Amino acid sequence: MRAILTYHSIDDSGSPISVSPEVFRAHCAFLASGRVRVLPLVDLMREGDTGGDAVAITFDDGFENTGTVAWPMLAAHGLPATVFVVPGHVGKFNDWGGRRVPGIPHLSLLSWDALGQLVMQHATLGAHTMTHANLAGLDASGIDEELDRGHAAMVQHAGVAPTTFAYPYGGTSPVAARAVRARYEFAVTTELRPLRSGEDAALLPRLDMYYVRSPGALEAWGQPSFHARLWTRRLGRQARAWLHPSAGRVA
Ligand SMILES: [Zn+2]
């Protein structure tokens, strides 16, 4: 099985964007065990489905704890990861659009200096729009502006021209996917499933590790219980989306 793994914040709040440091430490130990190969995102996708079990690790939003808590654990095992950065909020907080969301912790985001330190430690930076905009709600010019301003800021402040992109909130549309495809080699969504052969490079699914945070859940990788867990979570998310169209879109 091949998959792209999603983390947001590594903290003890128990929120829908959080995985605890204790669980993350266990995840790192499993990922470093050799059971599954861990590749940089671009390498995983370029390899295709010929190489057997493999994953890529991604972090959305660039929380400060990605640098202070997660990165030391990843680095201890030599595990690569991509961090999707929101330039308009770098060094600030995750109050996208100036709004805080009930149940979501108000968290510091990494500064440009801290992001630069991560790059020196071989982190890959990816793009996540300029302001964490939901591209599904924007017209073509609005999408272009979010993508181009975000990209220019990454180049200016981090000295990095990203080749990967994550849709904020998983929000996409045919227009958005076309604009992203024209700018980035690979783009990831929040569609909860492993990779299949022949994926659209601009609309890649991921596995949100929030749904795999129970003890032993990730260690069941590839087993029927692991697939059953994903299937159950996917159904739950679909039901919630149907009942509350804006619910669950927090990161
Ligand atoms: Zn996000």
Considering the chains and any ligands shown, give keywords for the structure:
alpha/beta, about 250 residues, two-stranded parallel ribbon, eight-stranded parallel β-sheet, globular, about 35% helix, TIM Barrel
Give a written overview of the molecule.
The protein is α/β, with parallel strands linked by helices. The chain has one domain: Glycoside hydrolase/deacetylase (TIM Barrel, Alpha-Beta Barrel), CATH 3.20.20.370. The protein has seven helices and ten strands. It has helices spanning 21-31, 41-47, 64-77, 112-120, 140-158, 174-183, 224-243, and strands at 2-7, 9-10, 18-19, 37-38, 54-61, 82-85, 124-127, 164-166, 186-192, 204-208. Strands 1, 4, 5, 6, 7, 8, 9 and 10 form an eight-stranded parallel beta sheet that branches. Strands 2-3 form a two-stranded parallel sheet. Helix 1 packs parallel to helix 3. The protein is globular, with a radius of gyration of 17 Å. The two termini are 26 Å apart. The mean pLDDT is 94. The structure holds zinc ion (ZN). The site of zinc ion (ZN) has 6 residues, from strand 5. Zinc ion binds at residues 60-61, 128, 132, 168, 251.
Bound molecules: zinc ion
CATH architecture: Alpha-Beta Barrel
The name CATH uses for the topology is TIM Barrel
The SSE string, one letter per element, is EEEHEHEHEHEHEHEEH
Measured between the Cα atoms of the first and last residue, the distance is: 26 Å
Q: In the CATH hierarchy, what is the class? A: Alpha Beta
Number of strands: 10
Helix fraction bin: 25-40%
Largest sheet geometry: 8 strands, parallel
What's the domain count? 1
**Number of contiguous helices:** 7
CATH superfamily: Glycoside hydrolase/deacetylase
| Binned strand content | 15-25%
- Bulk shape: globular
The Cα radius of gyration reads 17 Å
Helix-strand category:
alpha/beta
Contiguous low-pLDDT stretches (5 residues minimum) are none
